[in-house]
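Exercise 7. Given the components listed, write out the predicted structure of the assembled complex. Treat all entries as one system.
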Amino acid sequence: MMLWLTIACRNLFRNHRRSLFTILAIGFGFAGVTLFSGFVHYISSSLRDMQIYGRAGGHLTVLKKNWNAPGAIEEEASFTDEETALIEKVLAEEPNVVAVSPGTGLSAILSNGEASSICYGFGISPSTVERIRNTARGLLGEFRYYEGDPLSDEKSYGIGISRGLRRALDLKLGDSVVLAGPTADGQFNAVDCEVLQIFETTGDQSDRSLLVPIEHVRRLRNSYGAQQFGVLLREGVSLPDMRKQLTDRLAAEGIQVEIFTWEEMSHFYRRVRDMFNVINRFNLVIVLVIAGMSVINTIGMAVMERTREIGTLRALGLKPRGVLVLFALESALIGLCGTGLGVLLLLAGWLGMDIAKPTWIPPQINVEVPLQVHLVPEYIVLCAVGVVTLAVLAALIASRRAARMEVVDALGHS
Amino acid sequence: MALFELRQVSRTYHLGDLMVRALKEVSLAIEAGELLAFMGPSGSGKSTLCHLLGLLDNPTSGKLLLDGQDASELDEDGRAELRNRKIGFVFQNFSLVPVLTALENVQLPLLFRPGHESLARKRAAEALEAVGLTPCSRQRPSQLSGGQQQRVAIARALVTHAEVVIADEPTANLDSEAAESLMDLIQKLNAERKTTFLLATHDARLLRSIPRQISLHDGEVVSDQKGARS
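Answer.
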């Protein structure tokens, strides 16, 4: 085997310029694909963390069964006061649950005394949200979600508004506003609030959103109940298993629920992920085609130039499949060298970005954030295996005719 | 039993609409240990006969037996194995692998046999010693003279302890001195090892010392002289 490797290595140097350009094509293609994939991973993991930690949605969201049945009114989608207390008790007993964040949606009107705007509010538990956000690691752990002060359980009349609402009502931090909306029994109610923070909305949030401590929402709605519970789990827990376990446990308590994973809850995440996956596959196909054609060309030329040599080897007893192995080995070496170069270029790009720390403003938000590229070992290994496999396949395509050639024809080739 | 037996062997090539009969119903027997030359002008069928005897090609009709075995019954892998085990080749243009050293080139045929890797180096060194090229074992073909390259090719043919070596115009690219030296080597190996040598040539320098000479003309055997050594 060593001699075969020696032959393959020396043949690479025999046409060093041609081999070099093929290796460069593979290397730059590999680096391009893995860098872009690293960027996609950064986007995906950021959106995932934003859904789980940033919005305190947790890994699982517990909703009332048939919460979105056609014709269901808001009250039918809400848990009663007793159900809410029982769900909180059951979830608190589960060892894999780290935190539970109750939430309640609210269609309301916000007024500054002179003008008013319809808005979609969401009641949150400020202390739980803060706790969930604090468990986020990396970039999101340092991310500032708002301008102003944090919401608090104690100052439950302090609310956060989106930039869209701020523009619509010409509000600033510290302004007093009135929040009006329906109570649980269909009456109309209003509460005083103070603007404590202004936040950015992301893709699947309304531009006219507000965050309100859940105690204040309950005061407005005159109901203790909640519409949903965000459940933060320990890392590594199987979401499907946990979903089934919690559904069964709550059903045993007489509460019928539907539980969704963070991915199912975030339409924006899925849309972005699917879009990037399409772009990524498109890039991958282009790179694979270019790399594959380069290898076919290189090996094809080598086969043409060395047909007599193949004839000699066949005359000495090399079987047809041995010819394929010979060129496959040579091509695999080209693939490995290209992959090696690609990994070096990838590391250089990653290191360069780590040093330069470029920033960008992603679509749908107005905050400048660091532009990062993640190194994803499993993807790098997968790409490397893919490139080497492609190189071998390309070599088999290029050399199969030579392998099938009659020995005398190969010997007489000029 | 003859090493080779040809019964009414013909070989026809199709060049477009043109049909070329390179060999016409040739029958002959070659015993083990012979030193034999196929003679004749270009196009007489020498190389075609060498290709058939070397199992590099199949007859269009007739039978070719090697050690009593009908070669046409073998598939390509079987023929490759038989070539590797029994037959060595020396080509006109030496046909050494340019990226390998002399020693590595000589090892090649043994590396086509599973499990012979460890033996290959030792046997290749012995074969190179037998052709007097031990000092050149680390040199590549481009660093060797034509005569030396042809000796490496002979070492490569002998490394498997082949029963027969087929040499197609082995001296065509050699000067007189190298050709004579090569012929001496072939005679020595034939005498000492009883290796069968089949040479296709029209080099008169070689013919003087070859005991059996078969003349071909237009694909037919026109004479078969035994004891022709001068």
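Discussion: The interface with chain B takes residues 1-4, 6-7, 10-11, 14, 308-309, 311-320, 322, 406-408, 411 of chain A (CB under 8 Å). The mean pLDDT of chain A is 89.
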